[in-house]
Design a protein that fits this description.
The protein has 16 helices and 16 strands. By secondary structure, it is of the alpha+beta class. Strand 3 and strand 4 form a beta hairpin. 38% of the residues are buried. The chain binds histidyl-adenosine monophosphate (HAM). Histidyl-adenosine monophosphate binds next to strand 6, strand 10, strand 11 and helix 12.
Amino acid sequence: MAIILPQRGTYDAYYDDALNMEKIEHRISEITHNYGYNPIRIPMYEAVELFSRSAGESSDIVTKEMFDFVDKGGRHIALRPELTAGVMRAIVTNKLYANYDLPLKISYCGPAFRYERPQQGRFRQLTQYGIENVGVTTPQEDAEAIILGYNITKKIGFKHVILKINSIGDQESRDAYRTALRAFFKDKIDSMCDDCKRRYEINPLRILDCKVPEDQEIAKGAPKMGDYLNEASRARFNEILKILDANKVEYVIDDTLVRGLDYYSHIVFEFHYISDNGTNLGAIGAGGHYDNLVKEVGGPELSSVGFAFGIERLNMLLKEINPEEYAKPTLDAFVMYMGENCRDKASELAFKLRNDENISCDINYTNKSFKASFKIAVRKNARYAIIIGEDEINKNVYQLKNLQTQEQIEVNYEDLVKTIKE
Ligand code: HAM
């Protein structure tokens, strides 16, 4: 029978990978909880309009990368390309803004889907862990989100991340900047790609995200956002930078950073990491402030800030940075027995350790030789082997072998548990 291959751009994570992704998610969940965030779970698919209204008609995510389809009931649906829009929709349809204190501090984790060209660290199904702080007005709240993101990178094992920051200002500043960009690209746009021609009409800021090398070269000479920030936008940006300085958060101001989603205003940021071997997967996490998203999806006007990390990218880099600490599946103990007569006793012990003592253990019921069983125990990274034969059953004891030191002792049940737990 022919093998059915996985879909292009998808990724099977198992054993070490899956375990570590779970650990990263668990760690992020602890940290976001410490910052007062509450989890949300939202559907993986929504009306396509939710994403075109929020991410923006000019973004690549909407124009090129959406996994959309018409369902059997004739509805135009899309698999979510990110979770922010869905969170906003959930806030509006569940009236969270009326039922809970503002700002709403919401965290999430789950898959997103983008029809991108797969390459290292870029998948068509990816996992995002993110937060949204909705109902935010002060620069302190924006800064807090950045500090939280920065601390997440530290706590999960990145010593040096590059935090790129920029302000794309308020609506007035961006309008002035768009006018300046149109003036700059006016006599160049005819030689640029078709996407850029479209971006020129809808949102010239998106030209700055173009991946075509010739267009990128032209865009290098474009005016910089920083020169078009009005006074209020500049003041907000400076206030945020001051808070980051006070909290010893290192950052670089990147005045080319505009982000690929249309909903941002004011502060935008990205976390990058380049390994000692030169591995650079692009942004490991990114976000920014946004003003109109809740309103765009039918709710009240609520300014917000948020970010999302890409779990696959974090995992790939952490595996490279710290292979020794990269967790392997482990067991506290592996139970082995001699002969069918001892099987029930061994099985009873395994259940007891797992259920009553919270000790992780495994047992192999195919009654292999001790030699084979020891090999399995070592491969499973078991710390101890527990050996049960007729003698042990008669004396009501166990042989407990430390698989690191190879030291073997005879113990009763209480000492067995005590030693393993030590
Ligand atoms: P984003 O920059 O599009 O922002 O994605 C956030 C992160 O998801 C990226 O930094 C990257 O680590 C990961 N990511 C994105 N695309 C891929 C891919 N194809 N393969 C692997 N990883 C990927 C957002 O999605 C915004 N919703 C973030 C946000 C939340 N802004 C405000 N609130």
